[in-house]
User: Which sequence fits this backbone?
């Protein structure tokens, strides 16, 4: 079981459904979203799954044919294509940096006109705020939601940069995030749809991976134990929810809220997602502030450090996006 085997079985089953019935509007939307999942993988530079499924059963060709038969076009890759950037060597402590950016944005002369900021604003309102709850914002994707909460004087908010680069740095192991993610696909392939069953399966199988990396486990447990509230809500853009599920495996207080997820997780994550619009996840992740502005540099004594883009236009657009969430 695993990433490729789950997807092959799932997409084969869905294609059989689509090719043997008259499709409803909901079916067509689902087919478009499932194709978008694969197109996004290519957009991000990951082609192994697509190449395998296209070779094995012409998956992408058949999905496009289904949509063509219904008079529908695939979702376009409509987010702004951001160029690469060069990062400076100076390190900045993450939480202090974000506070300084927010202060700078208060008097900034321009506000980003990106219409998707309105959707992020609504997502932040949906998250809500409760006493005796800590909110962990996973950087880089949740930089703007963190801004929303920080600029409104919310307490118990924590920006954590637990990314692929962080995991590889701490474990000195490449692709360790894939090992952590694998149980999520195995849970689905095993038929765990209800969240309680899915979560129990994932926790049981994520913990052995974490145990193989004692330094990572110690750091994560220290971060979690530094939070004294009775509940922890992890915030991120979405898709698989790998890091929230990893943290949940380590601490029963953890829950999470995602902007969206893949169609095959809609039912499992149903009350933990803001919307069932997978097609928008890359628009969320590719804003300047959340994609280019900073990157993980190091971790020390409970603090995350980052390098910043050397491109002044990236900083200018980042400040403008931050200003847009502070209205």
Assistant:
């Amino acid at each position: 079981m695993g990433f490729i085997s789950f997807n092959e079985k799932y997409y084969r089953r869905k294609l059989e459904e689509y090719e043997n019935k008259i499709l409803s509007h909901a079916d067509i939307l689902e087919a478009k979203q499932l194709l978008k999942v694969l197109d996004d993988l290519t957009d991000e530079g990951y082609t192994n799954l697509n190449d395998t499924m296209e070779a094995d059963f012409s998956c992408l060709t058949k999905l496009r044919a289904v949509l063509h038969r219904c008079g529908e076009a695939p979702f376009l890759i409509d987010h702004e294509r951001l160029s690469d950037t060069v990062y400076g060597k100076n390190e900045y402590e993450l939480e202090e940096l974000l506070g300084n950016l927010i202060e700078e944005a208060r008097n900034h002369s321009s506000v980003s006109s990106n219409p998707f900021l309105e959707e992020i604003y609504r997502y932040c309102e949906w998250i809500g705020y409760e006493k005796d709850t800590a909110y962990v914002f996973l950087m880089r994707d949740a930089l703007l939601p963190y801004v929303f909460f920080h600029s409104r004087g919310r307490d118990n908010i924590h920006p954590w940069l637990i990314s692929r680069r962080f995991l590889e740095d701490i474990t000195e192991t490449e692709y360790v995030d894939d090992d952590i993610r694998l149980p999520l696909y195995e849970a689905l392939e095993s038929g765990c749809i209800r969240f309680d069953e899915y979560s129990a399966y994932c926790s049981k199988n994520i913990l052995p991976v974490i145990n193989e990396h004692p330094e990572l486990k110690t750091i994560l447990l220290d971060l979690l134990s530094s939070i004294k509230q009775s509940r922890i809500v992890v915030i991120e853009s979405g898709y698989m929810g790998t890091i929230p599920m990893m943290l949940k495996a380590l601490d029963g207080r953890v829950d999470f809220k995602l902007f969206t997820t893949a169609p095959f997780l809609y039912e499992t994550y149903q009350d933990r997602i803001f919307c069932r619009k997978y097609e928008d996840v890359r628009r969320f992740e590719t804003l300047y502030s959340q994609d280019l502005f900073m990157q993980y540099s190091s971790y020390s004594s409970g603090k995350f450090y980052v390098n910043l883009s050397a491109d002044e236009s990236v900083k200018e657009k980042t400040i403008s996006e931050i200003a847009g969430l502070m209205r």
